[in-house]
Amino acid sequence: GPDVGAAEAGAPPMRFGLEAPTTSPAPGATPAPSPAPVVVDTVAMTIDSSSYSIASGDNVTFTLRLSGHSGQPTGTIEFRENGTLMAGCLSVAISSGEAACSTSGLTRGDHRISGLYSGDRNYGPGVAGTITQTVH
Asked: How deeply is 111 buried, as exposed, middle or buried, from its count of CB atoms within 10 A (0-12, 13-18, 19+)?
């Protein structure tokens, strides 16, 4: 005889499309956020010094470069020295994939320099560095 289909054999009807499941989540399960968050790309960052060893009072420039696969990163960079915001380098705008901070106010010794990226609509926030700046 003819082949009997699932619906004729008493099986539940097949469902197509994006219907919500009829089963309840397991106890303790965390429901998925709705709507789903926008996925942002990861930005690649490097930080560099114009001169890694300077005399006290000399000017030094730190340059942070950004790149990514979702267009040119925009936003701001917050430059930090030993984890503390650097005066005058709080919210440096990114231009053509770069942000720079110049200072002559570093004291003698070694300073850990990093840059915190704000993120934008295409890229999540991030940190570049740490590099060590030596002041004699």
From this structure: buried
Give dist(CA 91, CA 104) in Å, integer: 18
Q: How far separated are the first and last CA of the chain, in Å rounded?
A: 95
Q: 80: closest CA among 66, 92, 98, 97?
A: 92
Query: Global pTM?
Result: 0.70
82: left (phi over 0), alpha (psi -120 to 50) or beta: left
pLDDT tens-place string over residues 8-65:
555 555 555 555 555 555 666 666 555 555 667 899 999 999 999 999 999 999 999 9
Cβ neighbours, 10 Å, residue 8:
9
How far is residue 111's CA from residue 132's CA, in Å, rounded to a whole number? 6
Report the distance separating Cα 39 and Cα 43, nearest Å. Answer: 13
Tokens of 2: 């003819």
